[in-house]
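Report of the visiting student (M.T.), summer placement. My assignment was to run the structure pipeline on a short list of targets and document each run. The first record concerns Carboxymuconolactone decarboxylase family protein.
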Amino acid sequence: MARTVALKPEQVPADSKPTLDAFTKNIGFTPNMMASFAQSPIAFNAWATLLGSLSKALDVKTRDGIGLAVSEVNGCNYCLTVHSFTAEHMAKLSAEEIILARKGHASDPKRDAALQFARKVIEARGNVSDADLKAVRDAGYTDANVMEIVALVAMYSLTNFFNNVFDPEKDFPAVTPAGSI
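After the run finished, the structure tokens were exported:
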């Protein structure tokens, strides 16, 4: 059960309204997570700025894969529904690739290295080994790319934590529970 309400358009704080309206226009509807998150213009706009900046990092399949891997580790069912939907419809990942990503893997070797690294970052709270860092670098990622992976892990964790705390009503298709994959 939701622990906070999704704001109605007339309830959205003025400082959140332009950002929320832009998302609504781009997506075609207002996801409940965003309508809830908009209650705090400071947190919501900071997240939206980070999301906008990181949308230029890496490629969409890798970004969505990292979102799936991190959301699986953090147990965020809301984010798993969102990222599964976007991975299928925007990144054009197959159902098999989505399951692999949730496990921190990909069939593409370079993307696999990024997802494995992202999963290790979240599981180890950043305390990765030299071997972990070497593996992602050996796959062709620069230090700047590694920093982007870490930033993506942090950004996805922010929404995972928000959704785990406030549990907004799910408005994307349900996904298979982790124990079944």
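The chain has two domains: 13-54, 60-175. The mean pLDDT is 94. I thank the supervising group for their guidance throughout the placement.
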